[in-house]
Amino acid sequence: MLSEIVKISSVGSESIRLQPFNSNGTCNSCSLKPSCGQYLLNSLYLNREVELPTSLLPKETDLRSLKNGSQIQINIEAGKLVQLALLLYLLPLLGMLFTAYLAELAGLSEVLIMTLVFLVLFLSMRMLSRYFQRHGRLEKITLRLLPASEMMLSKVSIDNRGG
């Protein structure tokens, strides 16, 4: 189970805007900072916010309990994350490579091959978009509102994990 603690910056009827909690506080005290990819990513996006559509939240999530400035812990199963990543990245890529290979075997011109490859890319993205519209809810994601006492414990455990 992968988890991340985030701060709610705004709650709307259609989406929730989230900011990472203490994204650089831990990295600044870490000795591996110069060679760490996470530190580099955090330094690129200092004031980053993510908009999470409410349609992706589990059905039992009560939006009225989420307030601006409160902190929540988002959990997602690692297997579900890998499955979604493979679906989003591997499926279009394999479709494009397979189309280019078949078009090359058929002896088509390069311009026609490129056109077919982009058409397959467009169609695969369209298919994925429709799939996520129908099966959009990620039931494997859980949100947990952190009480004030647990927020302080979370900050201490994050600051002490060293990296």
From TrEMBL:
Entry keyword Transmembrane: yes
TM region(s), chain numbering: 81-102, 108-128
Signal sequence, start to end: none
Keywords: Membrane, Transmembrane, Transmembrane helix
Pfam families in UniProt: RseC_MucC
Keyword check for NAD: no
Protein name: Fis family transcriptional regulator
Highest taxon listed in the record's lineage: Bacteria
InterPro entries for the chain: SigmaE_reg_RseC_MucC
Species the sequence originates in: SAR86 cluster bacterium
